[in-house]
UniProtKB/TrEMBL annotation:
<dbReference type="Pfam" id="PF09335">
    <property type="entry name" value="VTT_dom"/>
</dbReference>
<feature type="transmembrane region" description="Helical">
    <location>
        <begin position="80"/>
        <end position="100"/>
    </location>
</feature>
<feature type="transmembrane region" description="Helical">
    <location>
        <begin position="6"/>
        <end position="25"/>
    </location>
</feature>
<protein>
    <submittedName>
        <fullName>VTT domain-containing protein</fullName>
    </submittedName>
</protein>
<keyword id="KW-1133">Transmembrane helix</keyword>
<dbReference type="InterPro" id="IPR051311">
    <property type="entry name" value="DedA_domain"/>
</dbReference>
<dbReference type="InterPro" id="IPR032816">
    <property type="entry name" value="VTT_dom"/>
</dbReference>
<feature type="transmembrane region" description="Helical">
    <location>
        <begin position="191"/>
        <end position="209"/>
    </location>
</feature>
<keyword id="KW-0472">Membrane</keyword>
<feature type="domain" description="VTT">
    <location>
        <begin position="64"/>
        <end position="181"/>
    </location>
</feature>
<feature type="transmembrane region" description="Helical">
    <location>
        <begin position="46"/>
        <end position="74"/>
    </location>
</feature>
<feature type="transmembrane region" description="Helical">
    <location>
        <begin position="161"/>
        <end position="179"/>
    </location>
</feature>
<keyword id="KW-0812">Transmembrane</keyword>
Length: 215
């Protein structure tokens, strides 16, 4: 397990560094994202959908508040088009992370773990537990991108990865967009409740998985 954790923590540190950088510079904030949506909506609602998908795709490279973007998408576009835009963005991010890691991931693994037996152990461990990791990855920021990259590195079948990615991301997008669509600035309660409920559900899944794995 340690070799696998070493790889995942290294990937997480890379994604986390972008979060720290963006927070320190203020390049992307919730207020700015909301402003971009307002400007795009005043021009054409299609541009709002493009901004949503683009931001969620960019989350692969820079830290973006994913659930906040999805909720705002529902607020500006409604539940259907908000969810559709979010799913498109998540699909692009997951596929890109998978493809890049499948092509170049060996170099990173060989660099981080010199011993061949440990490398094989790390990859086989993810092959065993990877599906659950992908399904529950929305519990925390960064983990979805890490899991997509790990799926590519371990050469998980793309169809299998995509199914798991959609099983995790589609309900997440639908619920987040719906919450945004029924929320207002005066009454943000639905968005807050759904955000809390989604996070709690994924964490409960992790607790059950951890108990069964270690029990």
């Amino acid at each position: 397990m340690k070799p696998l954790l070493k790889i995942m923590l290294f990937l997480a540190s890379i994604f986390a560094s972008t979060f720290i950088l963006l927070n320190s510079t203020g390049l992307i904030t919730v207020e700015k994202i909301e402003l971009w949506f307002e400007i795009a909506k005043n021009v054409n609602t299609l541009y709002v959908a493009i901004v949503i998908a683009g931001l969620l795709f960019a989350d692969l490279f820079i830290a973006v508040p994913t659930l906040t973007v999805i909720i705002l998408g529902g607020y500006f576009l409604g539940p259907f088009y908000g969810a559709l835009s979010a799913i498109a963005g998540l699909f692009m991010a997951g596929t890109c992370g998978y493809v890049i890691s499948r092509k170049y991931g060996d170099r990173l693994v060989n660099f981080l773990i010199r011993d061949q037996a440990q490398r094989e152990n790390a990859l086989s461990t993810f092959n065993t537990h990877g599906p659950v990791v992908i399904l529950l990855s929305r519990a925390t920021p960064i983990l979805p991108e890490v899991s997509a990259c790990m799926a590519g590195m371990t050469r998980m079948k793309y169809a299998k990865f995509l199914l798991l990615w959609f099983l995790s991301g589609v309900p997440y997008s639908i619920l987040g967009s719906y919450a945004g669509s029924i929320s207002t600035l005066e009454n943000p309660t639905p968005a807050i409740l759904v955000a809390a409920g989604l996070t709690a559900s994924f964490w409960l899944g992790w607790l059950i998985f951890n108990k069964k794995t270690n029990g």
